[in-house]
Amino acid sequence: MRILIVGAGVIGLSSAYCLNRAGHDVTVVDRHADVAAETSFGNGGQLSYSYVAPLAGPGVVSKLPGWLVRGDAPVRFRPRLDARQWRWCIAFLRACTRRRSDLTTRELLSLSFLSRTLMHELIAAEPQLDFDFTRSGKLVLHRDAAAMHGALRQLEFQRTLGCEQYALDADACVALEPALADVRPQLAGGIHTPGEDTADCRRFCAGLEGLLRARGVRFVMETGIDRLNVSADGHVFALHDGAPLDADHLVVASGAACASLLKPLGIHVPVYPLKGYSLTFDLQPGVRAPHVSVTDFGRKVVYARLGSRLRVAGIADLEGDSLAPDPRRIATLRAETAALFPDVGSGAAVEWTGLRPATPRGTPIVGPTRFRNLWLNVGHGALGFTLAMGAAALLAERLAGGRHSALHDTFAPAG
Ligand SMILES: Cc1cc2nc3c(=O)[nH]c(=O)nc-3n(C[C@H](O)[C@H](O)[C@H](O)COP(=O)(O)OP(=O)(O)OC[C@H]3O[C@@H](n4cnc5c(N)ncnc54)[C@H](O)[C@@H]3O)c2cc1C
């Protein structure tokens, strides 16, 4: 079948990989000249298979007042005259219960474990892919006893779901990651997950592009899809500059921009942009920087070594579609880095902003729509790199008529 994928980010490219392997004639279309030019460009680089608990959790509501007033809060909400933003916030707040959060964690772990298996199979099958992939393991740091207590509860819960994680005291954290030695007195402890990976998402996408081009996948770049139209017999097709790009099936994988593309068809996906930032430091020889992937839980900042660079990412600002960087947010991220890894934080860094395509519950939307040839793979929020291979495999299986996994129903578009 001829399949057109809108979006050359990590989700569109992983989908293209799985659909090409299934024997389809695949074309990827994107408005930029290069693949991974938007959110998949500079993300945190964490393949975070065991850390999928959603932002919408039971602890969030009590933290909200502080987040709303503190300038350096990890999450910020700027109210706008935008019904979509308010609907998203209400659905988010409704999801902030223990029951909902545990259910979402359970659902996402099933998808992330599938993704891990498929990512490792991909790496074995395609040894030419070079994207700074490391089996780094991950250490999540907690700075007070209450946070550590919550983490232990989560560890026990996730152990029942198959996660291999270990609680460490502050000394053990430093023994595992000596670059934390200076901050040892500030640590209450940490959770170590040996099975987590890190990699460069943009390089992953560029590698997939090369491999797919060699296998006959077409890339139609610098081609924005202005709208989706429906023919009299219910067939959806994409339009660029008034001209149709036809295919048997159309997959929307357009990240944070998907809601506006789908709305004219009457498809309302609850995907809203959550703006984040990253800094990328070139590591000079001898500089003390982490080898393990580190998450500073309270500050919601992640640190991942990508070859000879350190990627630092964090901040979630709910303030619309603008990518314009706020210098105060960059200063916050830089200050966090300097506080945890002083050798690194004072150096020059490449600054970047991106829009997480976030759903209120934190679950992606993958599968068919009420239009027989229109499919979605959107809404992966803070976990798009982590979930990409699993979501793409689900999509390819469903498109081929299969629905062996219960996951199809879990992540299927509503209505
Ligand atoms: C600060 C930050 C840190 C993050 N850290 C991590 C992490 O550590 N681990 C992790 O797993 N995830 C992380 N994420 C999330 C992850 O980056 C995203 O979930 C993922 O990149 C989304 O991929 P995507 O392909 O859906 O979107 P994108 O990468 O944005 O791709 C969508 C593509 O669609 C194209 N497009 C959109 N509309 C149109 C149109 N009308 N016509 C043509 N083309 C169009 C765009 O040009 C774009 O190339 C992070 C995100 C941020 C912002």
UniProtKB/TrEMBL annotation:
Looking at the record's lineage, which domain of life comes first? Bacteria
Q: Which UniProt keywords apply?
A: Oxidoreductase
Q: Where is the FAD dependent oxidoreductase domain?
A: 2-398
Q: Name one Pfam family in it.
A: DAO
Q: Which GO terms describe its molecular function?
A: D-amino-acid dehydrogenase activity
GO CC field: cytoplasm; plasma membrane
Q: Is this entry keyworded Oxidoreductase?
A: yes
Q: Which InterPro entries match?
A: FAD-dep_OxRdtase (IPR006076), FAD/NAD-bd_sf (IPR036188)
Any one Gene Ontology biological process term? D-alanine catabolic process
Report the sequence similarity comment from the record: Belongs to the DadA oxidoreductase family.
The name this protein goes by in its record:
D-amino acid dehydrogenase small subunit
User: In which organism is this protein found?
Assistant: Paraburkholderia caballeronis
